[in-house]
């Protein structure tokens, strides 16, 4: 069992909840936060657990504890999140890649795992290109991207290219035609590998996206798993009313 599989300590879970409340501005900075006894009762934990969580918040600079005066929230200045609109997905992904900076963490040709082989439609063990990148905006990391593509597709560009240009742009420049993409959005917790790369704590909540990019024949030419900091990244989608239901707004042709 690795660190990512271990359950979070109770104090860390309380810390994560209080951290979110502080960041969202739920505690007015000009007034003291509820005391340890009140927070302990509210969250169903001991006072010692709350105290340890507050110590972690103080370490992060998110609260200040004044003797005899209480604990005061210090919410950080909220950065403008990088926004990705699901309407015109491919175009938005290309534009985002051009306006952010990337750091290439890993790059290699490796045997496809059963999961990746199933997504790419290749035999398990067949060689695929695998890369791990971290994207930053305004000097702050916001996404951790693990991409796998078929070997013949990957040979169309070099490691150096991937460190400089968006992967989708490289695919198109190498002659690949991008027709559509499918993606699933959920949430995951940052593990011991991802957390330091995104400058978050182990166990921090992250937006998780799995995306498959296909060519006109339906072949998957990119399988991507992405983790985003929710304080730095947001999805937008337009909805139109369809009778009693809401449906995604169609992109213009």
From TrEMBL:
The keyword Calcium does not apply. One of its GO terms (biological process) is negative regulation of DNA-templated transcription. One of its GO terms (molecular function) is DNA binding. The keyword Transcription applies. Residues 8-76 form the HTH gntR-type domain. Keywords: DNA-binding, Transcription, Transcription regulation. InterPro entries: Bact_HTH_transcr_reg, Chorismate_lyase_/UTRA_dom_sf, Tscrpt_reg_HTH_GntR, UTRA, WH-like_DNA-bd_sf, WH_DNA-bd_sf. SUPFAM superfamilies: Chorismate lyase-like (SSF64288), Winged helix' DNA-binding domain (SSF46785). PANTHER family: MANNOSYL-D-GLYCERATE TRANSPORT/METABOLISM SYSTEM REPRESSOR MNGR-RELATED, MANNOSYL-D-GLYCERATE TRANSPORT_METABOLISM SYSTEM REPRESSOR MNGR-RELATED. This is GntR family transcriptional regulator. It comes from Limobrevibacterium gyesilva. The lineage of its organism: Bacteria, Pseudomonadati, Pseudomonadota, Alphaproteobacteria, Acetobacterales.
């Amino acid at each position: 069992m690795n660190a990512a599989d271990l359950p979070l300590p109770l104090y860390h879970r309380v810390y994560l909840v209080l951290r979110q409340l502080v960041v969202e501005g739920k505690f007015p900075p000009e007034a003291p936060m509820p005391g340890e006894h009140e927070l302990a009762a509210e969250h169903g934990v001991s006072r010692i657990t709350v105290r340890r969580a507050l110590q972690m918040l103080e370490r992060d600079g998110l609260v200040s504890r004044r003797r005899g005066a209480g604990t005061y929230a210090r919410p950080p200045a909220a950065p403008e999140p990088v926004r990705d609109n699901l309407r015109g997905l491919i175009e938005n992904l290309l534009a985002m890649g051009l306006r952010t900076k990337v750091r290439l963490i890993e790059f290699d040709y490796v045997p496809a795992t059963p999961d990746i082989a199933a997504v790419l439609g290749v035999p398990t063990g067949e060689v695929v290109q695998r890369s791990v990148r971290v994207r930053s905006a305004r000097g702050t990391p916001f996404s951790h991207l693990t991409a796998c593509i078929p070997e013949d597709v990957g040979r169309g560009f070099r490691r150096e290219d991937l460190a400089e240009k968006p992967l989708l742009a490289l695919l198109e420049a190498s002659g690949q035609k991008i027709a559509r993409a499918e993606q699933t959005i959920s949430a995951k917790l940052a593990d011991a590998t991802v957390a330091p790369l995104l400058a978050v704590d182990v166990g921090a909540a992250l937006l998780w996206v799995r995306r498959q990019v296909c060519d006109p024949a339906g072949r998957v030419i990119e399988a991507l798993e992405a983790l985003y900091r929710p304080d730095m990244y947001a999805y937008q989608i337009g909805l139109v009313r369809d009778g009693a239901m809401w449906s995604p707004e169609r992109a213009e042709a």
